[in-house]
Amino acid sequence: MTHNSKELELEQIYQEYKPLLFSLAYQMLGCVMDAEDIVHESFVAFKRVKDTNAVKNVKAYLCKIAANRCIDHLRSAAHNKETYTGTWLPEPIVEDYQEDPLYSVTMKDSISTAYIMLLQQLSEVERTVFILREVLQYEYETIASMVDKSSANCRQIFHRAKKGLAYEPDHSQQDEQKFKHCIEKFTAALQNGEISVMMNMLQNDAVFYADGGGKVKAALRPIYTAERIVHLFLGVMKKLPEDARLTFKKINGEPGVAVMMNHYIAYTVAFALKDEKINSIYMVANPDKLSHLNQTNH
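Above: the chain sequence. Below: its structure as tokens.
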């Protein structure tokens, strides 16, 4: 094989598997920039293989490299997570509605903010096995070769993880138009100060999570109950500068809101529904977690 044809083949492999590897790495790490680094490193490692034709299953081989690099990254970053100021939320993936999904392999349920938050409860290896099986539908034998454990052990790890998470996206989140309408109506009520409408759209036991990372002012602990959340949101609206704009975006594959200030995204707000009412709200305000979005805006 000539040098040029090998380069072309590697480029085709890169284009084909980049979305898959990003999906795996993002679900493992909850960080867009780190996930992109893992994807890049995985392909660099694959490029170093002398005879890539000898690799029988390229997809599994790349997933193994990416998964192991994610595990190493999580272990080295564990201290940072433990000492994180306030609530940790994943870096948001933000898309316009008219765009094709940026990462088509990432099914929206598997990158939703609520789902990524749940995955954080699992250990590094549990998370790897769970994602490879539940989201990417790998056989236990293949997973076993990726994480260097027996297939029986992987089966056990998966069932334990699944039982512990018990994640079922609410039926009302499956209809994107209804979900979008709900968020638009809630946002309009907020802008108009319609307290009763907002209260009616929130579950009584709704929870608000904010991630300022100690860099900007944000609630350090979750805010509980609809009444407190409405009070908090109205207070935030009063403090926003006049040129602030609320724009509807897809946040992690689901309807959400980006708050723009001076052409920069200052906050992203994601939602989860339960029985057609807002049950959880996730606001990312940490500028470090929004920098990848603001780079693309300029």
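The mean pLDDT is 88.
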